[in-house]
Request: fold
Amino acid sequence: MKGAERIEIDRRYCKGCLLCQYVCKYEVFEPGQERSALDYLMPRPAKLENCRVCLLCQTHCPDMALVVVAGKNLTAESAKNAEKNDSNSKIAHKKIVTL
Amino acid sequence: MNPLGEKYLRKDFLPFLFCPGCGDGMIVQAFLEAVDQLGIIDDLALAAGIGCSAWIPVYIHADVFKGLHGRAIPAAIGLKATRPSRKVVVFTGDGDGLAIGGLHLLHAARRNIEMTVVLVNNQIYAMTGGQVAPSTQVGSRTQTTPYGNLEKPLDGCKIAVAAGATMVSRCSTAHLKTLSRTFKKALTHKGFSFVEVLSQCPVQTGRYILGSGAPQFNLQWLRDNCVPVDDPAKWGEIEAQGKIPLGDVLKIEKPEFMEEVKKMNQKVKEAWAKGGER
Reply:
């Protein structure tokens, strides 16, 4: 099964809120060292092979900076995943980062 | 950039002026998803007042009116009266729609004029620095209530129901699929539709009321404290537990204001043609 081909984070708009890391169930993202154009530390899709293209990170990005580009043979399945992973369903979320 | 943003946002206005992790950007995306599915971007006319949430329509590539504090709804009523074919959507915040523009909300709901009012509730006056708002919970510490708030919060949904709105619903930014579906329902509803969206504000509500400025913490707070229900009869039960109920409150059909105006026009014209009798 193939996952996402790539995850693009727009350097111009990202504000480094890390909500993508928080909503991702498969721990794809991690805090990166690269700075965006607005001088925030951007997340990095470190474990891209874990991605199932549920698009939760894309829909939760408050700056509309993140795009998940799906692999070619996964469109029907990704749609099913996205429906299943609606935030209404009870997902076991990871630890909360407290500042 | 997000394909929806590529299609519908004003690129020269970007990036959003919202703080990192603000819920308003998510509302933009959910709204654009609904608009994209309905294909009504050319018919949209958006109005907004003052506040963080009033910046939501400014980024959307449609006709936008940005007016005085709390006065977006009267402007939208005027717009709807002159151009009944437009889909009018008003974005207000809790300070804009419940405090200074509260009466405008009541009277728009009473008329049942076809428009959608999206009230973004973050429980605080966020843009002006975190003062107490009409929707702030009892006991919350804000800049103007350093020892805790004593006033009971206003419930926007109950006010809209009492004033006679024909579609009332409450959503949150922690439930984005449902939010987008609700926007779709509200935009296709014939009559006054009111959607209250609970949104996270990490910088003001998070830091002063909830105790953490992390966006993750604020989204988790919404997830933990909001209970989606199908039946509005269960709302009291959930409120008694100290949680916030989400879902559709009511959706009914009533005569729409602009159609009534049209009928009245017709009637008066016929009466005058007969010889001036009313």
Notes: Chain B touches chain A through 38 residues (CB under 8 Å). Chain B has a mean pLDDT of 91.
